[in-house]
Specification:
Blueprint lengths: L6 E6 L2 E7 L5 H12 L10 E3 L3 E4 L27 E4 L12 E4 L12 E7 L1 H8 L3 E3 L5 E4 L5 E7 L2
Antiparallel strand pairs: 1-2, 1-10, 2-7, 3-4, 4-6, 5-6, 5-7, 8-9
Length: 162
């Protein structure tokens, strides 16, 4: 069911995660993520929001969930089911407000289907996903218990174009 031969490896202190992309379902999101990755935008950022059994979120240059690349892209909702290993774009209340922040589902999150743009799938590194999700969290500014005590850092994202 692979849609793309392009992959990206997200290297972290908890191990590597390799993703393939849904270029036909979300071409703008794939292009955006790959460009940011190749430009080094994600290198040194952290997974700033972690909810075991739900998702891990990263891609914020500020490390607090409030930053982005300085622009927004339009939603590309599709029929992909949000389940463990799905790579999707985070956004604000406006459906067309995604920029750089992304999340990886750590469990079934079907309630997000049709509301967030899924643009890839984990093909290797489930152990790293599980390790990041298992990190200790505390309540953040909004009261949600999702702020990592010791956030896992993304060392580097390497894109492999076929």
């Amino acid at each position: 069911m692979s849609e793309s031969k392009t992959t990206a490896v997200i290297e972290t202190s908890e191990g590597n995660m390799t993703f393939e992309f849904f270029e036909e379902k979300a071409p703008g999101h794939v292009k955006n993520f790959l460009k940011l990755a190749e430009d080094g935008f994600y290198d040194g950022t952290v997974f700033h929001r972690v909810i075991a059994g739900f998702m891990i979120q990263g891609g914020c240059p500020n490390g607090d969930g409030r930053g982005g690349p300085g622009y927004q892209i339009d939603a590309e909702f599709n029929d992909t089911h949000h389940e463990k290993g799905i790579l999707s774009m985070a956004r604000a209340a406006d459906p067309n407000s995604a920029g750089s922040q992304f999340f990886v589902c750590h469990g079934d999150a079907g309630f997000l289907d049709g509301q967030y743009t899924a643009f890839g799938r984990l093909i290797d590194g489930e152990d790293a996903l599980d390790a990041i999700a298992a990190g200790e969290v505390r309540s953040g500014a909004g009261g949600e218990k999702s702020s990592p005590v010791n956030p896992v850092r993304i060392t580097k994202v390497t894109v492999n174009r076929a």
